[in-house]
Each structure stands twice: as structure tokens, then as C-alpha cells.
Amino acid sequence: RSLAASNSDLLAQREQHLAEVQEHYYVNPPHLERGWKHFLLSTDGRAYLDMVNNVAVLGHSHPQLSERVSRQFELLNTNSRFNYSAIVEFSAKVTDRLPPSLDQVFLVNSGTEANDLALRLAMAATGRHHLVAMGEAYHGWTFLTDAVSTSTADNPNALGTRPDWIHTLESANSYRGLHRGAQAHEYARDAVAKLRRLATDGVEPAAFIAESVYGNAGGMYLPDGYLDEVYSTVREMGGLTIADEVQVGYGRLGDWFWGFEQQRVVPDIVTMAKAMGNGYPLGIVATSRAVADAYRAQGYFFSSAGGSPASCVVGSAVLDILDQEDLQGNAQRVGTHLKQRLLELADKHSIIGTVHGHGLYLGVELVRDRATLEPAPSETQAICERMLDKGIIIQPTGDRMCILKVKPPLCVDISAADYFVDTLDSVLTTGW
Ligand code: PMP
């Protein structure tokens, strides 16, 4: 019945059942039926190039993943208090890719859960409750993760509604913030000064949380040395450091598996999700034994589905396939080509203010004026709609909603990347 329903019927039914806050992409979204690699197919027989699905890191409907998880469903699925090998194999596969100090994992079901638990671990380990977050950040939707989510894109009141134990560092946006380009290192100086002022006022942070590459803000790097300076100061104050790798980790950056490697730091706690399940709900908090053990005194942890045999088999299969298909290498190769081509497009179309990012995490920032950097959100939205007409799925991000977030499945190839750039070129040339 649902396949037969017209697209407008389907949208009407959706509105009937889903609270309005659960928005959908596009004015008239295609009715999707299946995905294959970096393509999505609609019921009216159209194929769309998917430039936005960073969760489907292996591509859609990967046969080996389907086979391994279906086999596990046929064998056993139960909670993590039972004794089975999949949980040990997966946990070891993840910790093998992390710095040796981070050898303890908690298996959960999403990025929000991972960040919520990470913050609670820090609170338990330090006996404190003040938290420091960065501006223009998103870390999740639970009470605690929402409190450290400072982005105003979805909630214009975000900064005015945080609890008073949340402290925000200036968004280290080197493109349009207080300190630009070569001056961007000054953000670290300001952050350290703010932390010292907090200390003078008797505020002792439990933790500082940030994405290690600024994903929510469009995939831009933090200024060189930023995390090193901020982490050192937070640690001097007795706080812990949390790297949110939910979006930027797991090979997407091409040259680095984790975003924190780009900043040459080792966090006290790392959170990951999204890509690690290729769409299956999966998340992990990794930390040291000292931090993990401190939680026992103050917290309770059990997740009915987190760490189940099925989710661990998914997690292991994703890592195996990432390696077998050298998808991190592909992110590096295709990402380098794509960024180069987008930069060439910027020479032709003045609406492209800049291209952020690395590997297959890029952000094309659209501005009305390159001198004033006036954001172009309505143009960005219209361009996304026009790209859809032409068979490409792409969406805006950032506090000003003027950055095209380019983060396709990591199996995307050069010809698809070229098709994306050529189509964007034609939309920017002929109008939207
Ligand atoms: N952290 C970051 C940086 C994210 O981008 C997101 C999701 N957009 C989350 C956390 C929350 O992850 P989830 O949607 O899996 O709860």
C-alpha cells in the first residue's frame, strides 16, 4: 500500500504521525525505495547521487554487511551481559585503532548516547559538574548533550537556554569569526584566557568537549595547535578532554582515521557512532581504565541493545570492509580531486566564498559578498532543491545554513565526484 501511495499521500501520512519537529529534507522529497553504493533510488525509477550520507560509510546496502548481520540474527542476538565472542572481537578492533591509553570501551547505540555517557564519565571521574563546550557545536539531543550543543542552526535560542554550568568557548571559525586566516591561532589564546577567568571565578570544569575537526560548522579544521593548547589548560585545571569523533572520525578525512590526529593530540575520552554502524545504531565511548573505573562509584551503565552480538558483528564487518576496500585511501584520493575541482569552481562563481575540509568531509560555503561574507542561506536552500531536480542529494549545514555539506559514502568514485561538480557548475551558471 505504501509503495502505491503517491508522494503527496505519503507526506500527508508522515505529517499525521510524526511530530512536526522531525523535519524532512526538500519541499517535495523523492519517495525512496532503496540505496546502492553512493546512489539512492526512488519509486518513480530515478537514481540520485548521494553526496550527504556520512553514516552509510561503506555505501548503501553493502552485500557483505547484510550477509554477516543476517547470519548473526539467525544465530544469536542478546544483551551484553551474556558471554559471546562478537563483543570481544569488536571491542579489540576498535581499541587497536586508538592510542594505547584508550583501552576501555562502553558500547551504546548512538552518538548522542556516547556523548552523554562521556560527559557523565568526566563528571564522575572529577567529582565536578561544570562543562566547557565550543560555539557552533552539535553533540546530541538528550538533556546533557543538548546542554553542550551550542549551534543556533536548529535552535536560535541555544546559547540563551544553556544551564549556568555550561561555559562556551568562542567558535574557532577561521573563515568568518573574530580571528581569520593567519590570525586564527588567537582563538587558542582567547580560549585559554577564558578558562583562566573561569578558574579565578572558582569554576572548575569536569570536561571540555569539542569535535576535533569542526564538522557541524562545515568541516573546517580547528586552527593549528588549538586543541593542544586548550587540552593542556583544561588538564592543568584538573578537567578531562573529550573528542567527539561521531562525524569526522572513522577514515572520512582520508589522511587521518581520527580527527584528533589532525590536531596531534590524544584526548582522555573519545566518542564515535554514525559510520561505525553504516546505518545500524551503534556508538562507543573509549577511555582509560582510570576514568572508566571512576564511573563505577557514581554511575550505572547497561544498554539492552548496546554491544549485542548483532551490533558487534555490524561494527566488526564495517571495519573489515573499510580495510578490504581501502575506503580511507579512497576518501583521500577522491576527496583531494573533489576539493581541487571545487576550488576551481570557486574561481568561476563568486558565490562560493571558500571550500572547507579534507578528504570526503568538505564544506562549500556560499556567500552573497566575498568582502562582507554575507551568508547566502536562501540561495543555498534553492541550490539544494535545484540539485535534487538534477539527480543529486546535497544539504546545507552550519549556524548560517549556507554551507553545502559534502560527505558522501566513502565508496564514491572520481566520475561521481566529477558529476557532482559539473552539475553544481551548471546550476550556478544557469541559475536556481
Ligand atoms: N555529535 C556530532 C558531531 C554529530 O554530528 C551528531 C549527529 N549529527 C551527534 C553527535 C549525535 O549523534 P546521533 O545522531 O547518532 O545521536
UniProtKB/TrEMBL annotation:
<comment type="similarity">
    <text>Belongs to the class-III pyridoxal-phosphate-dependent aminotransferase family.</text>
</comment>
<protein>
    <submittedName>
        <fullName>Aminotransferase</fullName>
    </submittedName>
</protein>
